[in-house]
Design a protein that fits this description.
Layout lengths: L1 H33 L11 H23 L2 E2 L1 H26 L8 H22 L2 E2 L6 H5 L4 H36 L10 H18 L1 H6 L4 H23 L6 H26 L8
Parallel strand pairs: 1-2
Length: 286
């Protein structure tokens, strides 16, 4: 009974997180339309809107329990969860603009503005309903002072490069073994950009993905191994599961399943590397 109550508590709060995310998305779309920009098609089709709402609920299901076990100020919670959502989903939008131009039909600046407001809406609800508010065990400033700036810089750069290596290796492997026929047939509006275009897009995505978990690494507690596993899971969940759920009505399920494996290997391993290099291991009190 207590377990069911706990599950229901997470679900209804996650439903409100979804409402916050979708409200921000719609508001941004309306503001963009007033300025002459096209509104995202995902808010106009009933099927895609339903999957958008389900994917938005997952934001609360995934991030809510983590927020409840992490003591930070309200502003820190807002920045942490907002940046985790925004930089991951925003980076996915960059890739979508090149690989699925028929699905991403609005200009990237407008799409980023939509994601910014939507992420802020979801993060605000997470702060209000899930977050544990209080003085953190270690401030972000103290955490940053644990290393000199140049040490942070090379760790950030290497973490970003690791994503590029994982992306091209596992992406090429998945393309040769599974996804090539779908791209060649332009299934679901898919497209294969020129190699230099892919390199340019992913070179922009890589630091955004690493930046998305920076505040998490400054805040999280535990051993280095725990940080690595948790960070890898976060990057796969928010940067993989949520975007793939958004595409259930647009792309073949087999392609989505193959992409899930590919993204898991790319994002999870990037999270492991980033946490291994940038994470601050909790010191034992003994």
């Amino acid at each position: 009974m207590d377990f069911m109550k706990a599950v229901w508590k997470v679900l209804w709060r996650s439903l409100l997180v979804a409402i916050g995310y979708v409200t921000g998305l719609i508001l941004a779309g309306l503001l963009g339309a007033m300025l002459g920009a096209q509104m995202a098609s995902s808010t106009r089709n009933s099927s895609t809107f339903a999957w958008l709402f389900i994917a938005s609920i997952l934001l609360g299901v995934i991030l809510g329990p983590l927020a409840s076990h992490l003591t930070l100020t309200r502003l820190q919670h807002f920045i942490l969860w907002g940046s985790l959502i925004f930089f991951n989903l925003g980076s996915v939008a960059i890739e979508g603009a090149y690989f699925a131009p028929e699905l991403v039909t609005i200009p990237l600046p407008v799409l980023f503005a939509q994601q910014l407001l939507a992420s802020a809406g979801a993060a605000l609800v997470i702060v209000l309903l899930f977050s544990s508010i209080g003085k953190p065990a270690i401030s972000w400033a103290d955490a940053l002072r644990a290393r000199p700036w140049y040490s942070w810089l090379w760790r950030f750069v290497v973490s970003s490069i690791s994503y590029l290596l994982f992306y091209f290796f596992f992406g090429a492997l998945n393309y040769s073994l599974v996804t090539a026929p779908y791209y060649e047939a332009h299934a679901g509006g898919l497209n294969v950009p020129a190699p230099m275009v892919v390199l340019m897009a992913e070179s922009i995505r890589a630091p955004l993905i690493v930046l998305s978990i920076l505040f998490h690494l400054l805040s999280a507690h535990g051993t280095k191994r725990q940080l690595m596993l948790k960070t890898g899971w976060l990057l796969f969940a928010i940067g993989g599961i949520v975007p793939l759920v958004l595409q259930i009505s647009s792309l073949p399920l087999f392609l989505l399943a193959a992409s899930a494996v590919e993204i898991f290997l790319q994002n999870f391993l990037t999270g492991v590397v980033a946490a291994g290099l940038m994470g601050i291991e909790e010191k034992s009190s003994a």
